Amino acid sequence: MALFSRTPKAKKEETQAVAPVASKPVSALVTSSVLIKPHITEKAGLLSQKGVYTFEVRQDATEASVVRAVALAYKVAPIRASFAPIRSKKIFARGRRGEMGGGKKAYVYLPKGQTIEFI
After folding, report:
1. What is the pTM of this model?
2. I need a surface site. Which of 18, 55, 70, 119 has the fewest CB within 10 A?
3. Is 84 helix (H, G, I), strand (E, B) or coil?
């Protein structure tokens, strides 16, 4: 018998129970991996009256992933999403200099009649 034979080995057990990957539901995993938090400002409040909601999202988030995450988290059907950068800001507090990190925010457009409640 050759040491490196190319014949496939028999599988040990075909019917092994697969352990769940995480204890959170699938919707919580999707939303927590894309949405960070709602971006609540005065401008965001004015836009929400027109059906546009603002969220802070991960840097690698795409339009499809944001739309899917908002749909799962808030039980609405978004039309589309667009993105804008959040610039980093230089700060000076208590004699120390630093920088507040920036990020990415998403504007999520909902059809008329649908709203999202932030508590």
Report:
1. 0.71
2. 119
3. strand
Whether 52 and 109 have beta carbons less than 8 Å apart is answered as yes
Domain residue spans of the chain? 26-90+101-109
- The topology (CATH level 3) of 26-90+101-109 is Alpha-Beta Plaits (3.30.70)
Residue 63 corresponds to which tokens in the numbers above?
Answer: 């339009």
Strands across the sheet with 52-57, in order?
Answer: 35-38, 52-57, 103-109, 80-86
pLDDT tens figures, 58-107: 999 999 999 999 999 999 999 999 999 999 999 998 899 999 889 999 99
State the Cα–Cα distance between residues 56 and 84, nearest whole angstrom. Answer: 10
- Of the CA atoms within 13 Å of residue 21, those in its CB half-sphere come to 4
36 three-state secondary structure: strand
